[in-house]
Amino acid sequence: MARYQRYYHVGKSPQEHRCKNKEKKMTSFDQFNLPPALNANLLAMGYTTPTPIQKQAIPLGLSGSDILGSAQTGTGKTAAFSIPMITRIMSSPRGSALVLTPTRELATQVMAVVNQLLGKRSFIPTVLLIGGDSMSKQIAQLRMRPRIIVGTPGRINDHLERGNLILHDTSFLVLDETDRMLDMGFGIQIDKIIKFLPKERQTLMFSATIPPEIAKMSAKYLKSPERIAVGSTTEVKTSIQIDVIQVSEAGKYEELMTQLQKRENGSIIMFVKTKRGADRMSERLNKQGFKADTLHGDLHQRKREKVIQAFRDMKFRILVATDIAARGLDISHIEHVINYDLPQVPEDYIHRLGRTGRNGAEGAAVNLISPEDGLKWRDIHKLIYPGQPAPAIPHGASPQRGGGGYKGSKPNGGGYKGKSFGKGDGSSNFKPAREGAAPGGKPAGRNRFKRFSGPKKATSQAA
Ligand code: AMP
Question: What global pTM score does this model have?
Fold first, then answer.
């Protein structure tokens, strides 16, 4: 039997966060005196009011300051660094800018925003340098002397080493999601790349959190940086309704079926632990009549792009993903995040939830938590609600699965009899569900999906 709990996170949404000093008078992008073409493109993109991070970062970026910013994706961070970058490029016939991102997907998204901001009529050449993409195409584009280069550290180093890419006039550098780049082992690659850049430059560094190694890196690469932050980076958005379901590991798939039946509208992103597990899950869902596909690091770049595009175009409804592959995905119609497995790193929980409720839209998340997940859930809780008592960790890890289990837990033959998470934890950050809301229910919004008619067959085996 699964146990249900629903929470709403009472954090501030990005829109509600307020930057005390700089916000008062600024109501539109006109305030920044941007080049007219850029203003027109912003309008065409539907950006009329800067988000809090944009209000903070744009004037500082335009003034030439280095910036150390803590902000998650979903806050408008891309435009926050791209607007000063493009202004600088548009205002001078020389010089170029480089944006480093941890993943190919994020690089692709950043490039798309940059190209939109430049506009269709722009003559400013740009290039996207990511692994898995055609080398000869990239070399041809590099011959055009691109002035904005966006890419991942591995491929950029490749081009630098082969002499295809010259960065001696690159006086604007953005390090995006720096914490993730370090997590992914790109520290040395970044070091190497920065050696090719002139010392006289402007550097903007963004990171979801600023742990000591990021602070150290900032001291090395940034000059008297202005420090900006959008709220607490360990907050998820208000508009996300969170269901926590306690279930045995073996009962997860059946519970998933129940959840999918309840969640009739909107696209779903589901996170699993392993690449193989993602493939198996997607296969199984398809067999049962759900439209699903997979996104993970073993897929070739072209395949990954195809999957993302098909998901964007709503050709299928459920994207089964691993953490790295899905980081930074910006798809507005994702209404549900399903944590089939909890992430290894607590911070990834926040990134996962950030896939829904984009830019103030409503979203829902469901966590399927087995006794084996108890410690991970406690760490996530600690990160999101520092200082709050951690939820009770259930007993019940079976002896066979005890490898990652709990000290002192009582085997109970696999059946779950633990206590409810969060129950009685005194957390004031949670508030109960709206009265009358059905579990998993959401206000029906416009969407192009047919009503889900249910699986062909539900099984109780774990995927
Ligand atoms: P990001 O954090 O850069 O991934 O942006 C999150 C989402 O907010 C994207 O869909 C952007 O297109 C959108 N966005 C960013 N800035 C604005 C703005 N000023 N007005 C409206 N939408 C925005």
Answer: 0.60
